[in-house]
Amino acid sequence: IVDKVIGAFNYNQNIQGVILPANIKSIGAFSFSYCANLKNIDIPEGVEYIGMEAFGGSGLTYVSLPNNLIEIGETAFVNCVDLINIDFSKCNGLEKIGYGAFSADYSLTSIDLSQCTLINFIDTFAFYDCSNLTSFKIGSSTPPSLEVDAFLMVNSDFQIQVPSASVNAYKSASGWSSYACLLYTSPSPRD
Questions:
Q1: How many angstroms separate the CA atoms of 163 and 173, rounded?
Q2: Model pLDDT for residues 24-65, shown as the tens digit of each residue
């Protein structure tokens, strides 16, 4: 049902945790949006797509994304103000992060996409107003397309870590060039 019905469980205040069937390939639009008491979810390894605002405004505190995930849709995790940690470590096939996907996730302090080497697109406002976000790591050696204001209104200590062999490519790439002074390789110059 979560992959076929728009808003399958949205605004359901009784849901605290969810275990989805292993055979689903997508989580549909608004499936668990504004389920304020939803704190954790087990996303099956076969999920390739997370739809528009699938978890927007939910009470999630932690999410582990599956290894077959290809795309995080528009506003998929928008306004998840309690979301502290997103585990991208298995997402080596992730290609796209949609418009506003993680915007207004105030509790996020770091994003580690270092295992995500196939990302080719990060849309506008993807991390907009993540006001506590200080660290963003990306593993793609080729800079993905970065749309305008993807990192607008992040923390003033914000830094972007890129692969060492790709620093110059990122500094000159469209979208990334406006963040050239924030790009570094490990260790950070602030360490």
A1: 14
A2: 999 999 999 999 999 988 899 999 999 999 999 999 999 999
Q: Which residues of the chain have pLDDT under 50?
A: 1, 191
DSSP state of 180: G
Q: Is 169 helix (H, G, I), strand (E, B) or coil?
A: helix
Single-letter amino acid code for the residue at 55 = F
Distance CA 165, CA 117 (A): 13
* DSSP character at residue 176: G
Any residues with CB less than 8 A from the CB of 28 and at least 6 apart, and which? 2, 3, 4, 5, 6, 8, 51, 54
In three-state secondary structure terms, 97 is: strand
pLDDT number for residue 2: 54
d(C-alpha 102, C-alpha 123), whole Å: 11
